[in-house]
Write a structure and sequence with these properties.
two-stranded antiparallel sheet, 88% helix, Phasin family protein
């Protein structure tokens, strides 16, 4: 046992108890940090999977927008070349029909892609 200049003695059991307490606190802290690092890593992985899926969906959206703009320019070029109202009306009907068909197909593709990416991200989150 140790004695300091004031005559105060720290019992050996108190020292052992304090040492065990510090060891337990360190162990608890280390476990907490490990769990935190795993959670952060999982969140980063999930975010990466979501970002990859979002990037794919964004690319599709841009592609669809470009297709629609190109179709509108083609329609405008054809429209200025018409000679009468009947040709203009037929051209407009054809353009609208094609755009609606295209929009329907793109909506299905977009929905399928978004659903697929969301499912992939959910699976990746469950694996971790």
């Amino acid at each position: 046992m140790s004695k300091d200049k004031t005559g105060f003695e720290v019992p050996e059991q108190m020292r052992d108890f304090a040492e065990q307490s510090v060891d337990q606190a360190r162990k608890a802290f280390d476990e907490f940090m490990d769990a935190t690092q795993k959670a952060v890593s999982k969140a980063e992985d999930n975010a990466s999977a979501m970002q990859a899926g979002a990037a794919d969906v964004n690319k599709k959206a841009l592609t669809y927008a470009e297709e629609h703009v190109n179709a509108a320019f083609n329609f405008a070029q054809q429209l200025v070349k018409t000679n009468n109202v009947e040709d203009m009306m037929k051209l407009q009907q054809d353009y609208l029909r094609k755009q609606m068909e295209s929009l329907g197909e793109q909506t299905r593709e977009f929905s399928n892609t978004a659903t697929k990416r969301a499912q992939e991200a959910a699976k990746a989150a469950q694996k971790k």
